[in-house]
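Researcher: We're reviewing a set of sequences before deciding which ones to prioritize for further study. For each one, I'd like a predicted 3D structure that I can look through quickly. This is Phosphatidylcholine synthase. If possible, include the structure in C-alpha cell form so it fits the rest of the review sheet.
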Amino acid sequence: MSDTRSEREKPVPAPLPRTRVAAAWAVHAFTASGVVTGLLAIAALIAGDLRLALLWLGAALIIDGFDGPMARRVRVSEYAPRFDGAILDLVIDYLTYTVIPALLIFRFGLVPDGWGIPAAAYIMTTSLYCFGNREMKTPDNYFSGFPAVWNMVVLYFYIAGTGPWLNLAVIAVLGILTFVPLKFVHPFRVVHLRVPTLLATAIWAAATFWLVFQSVPGISLAATAPLAFWAFWASSLYFLCLCAWRSFRKAAAA
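Model: Here's the predicted structure for Phosphatidylcholine synthase, in C-alpha cell form for your review sheet.
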C-alpha cells in the first residue's frame, strides 16, 4: 500500500507552454526547409544549370546560418526534447555541404576527365570524419580541421574560374586538412573579433550573391561586377588571415 501511495503522490510535470512548444517546432521546420533547397539544387544540377544550383545552395547556407541562433533563443532542446535538432542539422548539412557539391564537381567537369567519380568519392568519404568528429568544434567555437564546406569550394571554383587540375589539387589538400587540427572560423559563433567578423560575413554574403546572380558564361566577373568581385576577395582574405592567426598564434607565442 505504501508503494501505491507514493506512486500516486508523485508530482505530475506541468505541461509545457504551447507557444514555446510551437516556437521550438517552428525552428525545426525552418531547419528542415534546408532539404527543400537541397532538392531544388539537385533539380538545377540535373538541368545543367550550375549558377542556379549555387543559388539554391546559398539559400541552404543562409538557413543553416540562422537556425542555430534561433534554436538557442527559443530553447528547442527544452521545449521539443523528443526531437534532436542537432542530428537533423547534420543530415541536411551533409546533403547540402558535401553530397550535392560532390555531384556538381562530377556533373560540370570541374576536375580533369576521368577524375570526377574519384574526386566526388574522396569528398564524400573524407567529410564523414568531419560530421562524425565529436571534437569538431574548439573551445573558442572554431571548427577543428576543414569543416567539409564543399559548397563554398565549388563556389570559389565558379567565381575564380580555376582550371580542372588546380581544382583537383585544392580538393586533395582540403580533404587532408579535414584531419589536421587547424582552426576554421564559424562566423556566427566565434567571440573574438565578433563585430568585424560579422561585418566581413555580411560583405562576403552580399558580394557572393551579386556575383553569382550577375554571372554570364564566358565573361569575367571582375569585369561584370568589379566592386562585388574585389569585396568578395577582400572579405575572403580576412577570413583566411583570421583562421591562420588563430591556428598558429600559440606556436608563435612559444
